Amino acid sequence: MANSWNDFNDAKPVVNIIPKGTIAKVRLSIRPGGYDDPTQGWTGGYATRGTTGSVYISGEFTVLEGPYARRKIFTLIGLYSPKGPEWGNMGRALVRAMLNSAHGLSDKDSSPQAQSARRITGIGDLDGLEFLARIDVGKDTNGDDKNEIRAAITTDHKEYTGLMGIVSSAPKPAGQSTSATIANTGNRPSWAQ
Questions:
Q1: Coil, helix or strand at residue 111
Q2: Rounded CA Rg of the chain
Q3: Which of 24, 37, 132, 158 has the fewest CB atoms lying closer than 10 Å?
Q4: Among the listed residues 114, 31, 11, the one whose alpha carbon sits nearest the alpha carbon of residue 72
Q5: Residue 45 located in a structural domain
Q6: Could you name the domain of life of the organism this protein comes from (predicted)?
Q7: For residue 58, what are the domain limits?
Q8: E strands of 13-170, at which residues?
Q9: Alpha-carbon distance 30 to 25, whole Å?
């Protein structure tokens, strides 16, 4: 008997992956790891120290709008690696882009206001930050696909202004236009004013 409640052979598998390249407005919630190093400015217990000695921000990004609203993406933002500065530099670049996106700044803007917006007093200032992110697909520890946030979309992106009003644009299949369908509300979020 097809679609019998007792027979799950014809049930569709659950696909939890948001397509790679989707642009969505997200909110960062930091999962505190309890690690502090005041000499680095890591206070308040927001940083996490891993078993390898690496230090990172354990980020939980919640999609705020669009077809993937309320979905969560977990990503580590590098602060330090005993293997060298690359991971920490990648983390700093991501945080800079997140701040640019949240505050509506061009990466090229070096005005005093932009410089001030890119300064934080501590990791806790990032908790609750809302910005546009490009969702990527990586691998978890078991080798399965998982979503990650590796890039923030800033005003330098041609669709930034339109996307700040809605915010989810799934990538188009190859050969189709990449412009998103925009349902701009026209209201600028309070954090971007």
A1: coil
A2: 19
A3: 158
A4: 31
A5: yes
A6: Bacteria
A7: 23-172
A8: 23-30, 35-37, 42-49, 55-63, 72-80, 130-139, 145-153, 168-169
A9: 16
Decide if 66 is inside a domain: yes
State whether the Cα torsion 71-150-135-143 is positive or negative. Answer: negative
Tell me the mean pLDDT in the region 159-184: 50
**Each residue of 21-34: pLDDT tens digit?**
999 999 999 999 99
Using the Cα atoms of residue 12, residue 18, residue 24 and residue 26 in order, give the sign of their dihedral. Answer: positive
Q: Give the Cα separation of 41 and 56 in Å (integer).
A: 13
Q: What whole-number distance in Å separates Cα of residue 99 and Cα of residue 93? A: 10
* Phi, psi dihedrals of residue 154, rounded to the nearest 5°: -110, 180
Structure tokens, 33: 């790891």
What is the total count of domains within the chain?
Answer: 1
Residue 131 in this model has a pLDDT that exceeds 70: yes
Q: Which of 60, 55, 61, 101 is nearest to 79 (CA)?
A: 55
Examine residue 59 and state whether it is found in any structural domain, yes or no. yes
Give Dmax (Cα) for the chain: 69
| CA nearest neighbour of 132 among 165, 109, 108 | 165
Structure tokens, 107: 């990466």
